[in-house]
Amino acid sequence: MAKKTGNTCIGLVFIIGAICMCLREFSPAVVGRQTPLAGRPAPMSLRGKKVAMHQGPPEASSEDKAEAEKRRLAAKQLADKRPRLAPIPMPFGNVSLDLSMMSYNQFVPRMYNMCKGLGFRKGKILPSIGFCSDENQGYPTILITKHFGAYPFNHGYIGGIMALDRHGPHAGHADDVVLVHAPHVGFEPDLQVYGTYRRRQIAANADSGDMQMSGTCGKVVGVLQPYIDTYNALLGRIRVKVEGEEVLISLSRLLLPSDERSAEDLAISLQFDKLLEEGALQNPYLRQSSSSIFRASESFAEKFKQIMSSEELSDEGVVEGGWYSLKNSKLTHLLTPDMFTFVKAPEKLQGEEHRLERSLLPNLPEVFTSPYDNELSASLICMQSEFDRSVHSVAAEPAYKGKNLMLISGLNIDVSPDQELQEAFPTTMFLPWAAYVQLKDGSRRVIEQSELVSELFSHSTENEDAIDMEESIRELFVRKRSRITFFDSNTNKKKAAQVL
């Protein structure tokens, strides 16, 4: 009895104490103080309950504080660096190569952690890839599988074109979704060129024993080649020379307007007002059997004279009579992008298989006159144009409403493996371009390149949610297999198939 009375007394003491604490917290004298209540712990009687008054944000855990400090230091580290390369001017905005790209084993965990920071949930995220079909895209795919814990859905066509009719099936397989879009380009470090890649699957050179190079991306190379041939032919059909005080331009008749040539599958249209003096097309300086000679425009003539006075031209492209063709490497840049356009019959550009060509076609003059490799410039255009197309598509897709979604676009740069390391996975770099984030609460935003790079760089390359690929595969061999059965409607029984 004494023990029971003692417990009752102790209980009364706690109850009275709690009541006094509540009275102190809500007494007018305390509420009117300058020191806010939010800075002190909530009363015991109210902890874990919602209260109408403002209590301020919960104090961050030590782990959260440490992560925030890591991200702050990473952002500062990146901001303190100074780029060495100027951005590349492109149709949808300049692309920064310097202090932007990262290897895939760093990019994928950072991307995963970025998704987690946006509220994406472990085990509920289904990635999808918009990659080309080439075999050297396997390593990025494996890493995405490892860090997201699921083999990615496929949103890609050959050449890095996005298959935008697959949103519904993708959305139906997960609560949170990520789309990684990246065309790709090969890079050969020994030659320092883009657009080529060493493959061990191609027979070695009989003389040297070296593995053979091949175009990468092959789809981009294949689309570009007819236009490159046409462009090179154009350069050879434009010839320039100085005669007295005048600069003359000789044009093959194949370049002059003609109704017969308007039906060609592929042609080049010159902007004669940029190249020739006003009215020259109707009043040539001289007509010849297979060409016509015109006086050059003032701006073209001035540039040509400057080259002639400042540099000693090689014999490259020199023809009889002192004419220089624009194939001379010192003169090629005189044909600027605003002086010509490519024209192709519309019926030859129909269908999804020609989408890459349609996106490149209006930009090819810039590609061929750029100081960068054609394959690099073309791949960057594909990256930009497909991101623009994909953003509008996913934003309007009903199946993605109410889900957390991120579309991230960039360029995969496949570094050609060394001759001695043909068995190793290739090194693949990712150059981020832009991202689109759409959260289940309806908020959405586009993240431009500089902000995206900073955001990715600020996240850890460690991923505690990554799966052990080897262990997961090993576990398949020891797991008890389920029986595969078929229902036989004739006997109204299930029958099991024998597994070898």
Describe the structure.
With 500 residues, the protein is an alpha+beta fold. Residues 1-57 have low confidence and may be disordered. The chain has helices at 2-26, 28-31, 62-80, 104-117, 138-148, 167-171, 218-236, 272-275, 298-310, 355-360, 364-369, 374-395, 449-457, 469-478, and strands spanning 102-103, 125-130, 153-154, 176-181, 184-188, 193-194, 196-198, 213-215, 238-243, 246-252, 266-270, 286-287, 291-295, 318-319, 323-325, 340-344, 404-415, 427-438, 444-447, 485-488, 493-496. The radius of gyration is 33 Å and the shape is elongated. Helix 4 (104-117) runs parallel beside helix 5. Strands 1, 2, 3, 4, 5, 6, 17, 18 and 19 form a nine-stranded mixed sheet that branches. It has a six-stranded antiparallel sheet with strand order 12-13-10-9-15-14. The chain starts with a helix and ends with a strand. It is built from 14 helices and 21 strands.
Overall geometry comes to elongated
Number of DSSP helices?
A: 14
Weakly predicted, low-confidence segments: 1-57
Q: How helix-rich are the residues, as a percent range?
A: 25-40%
Please identify the structural class as seen in this structure: alpha+beta
Q: What average pLDDT do the residues reach?
A: 84
State the distance separating the first and last CA atoms.
75 Å
Radius of gyration: 33 Å
Estimate what percentage of residues fall within beta strands: 15-25%
Extended strand count: 21
Sketch the major β-sheet.
9 strands, mixed
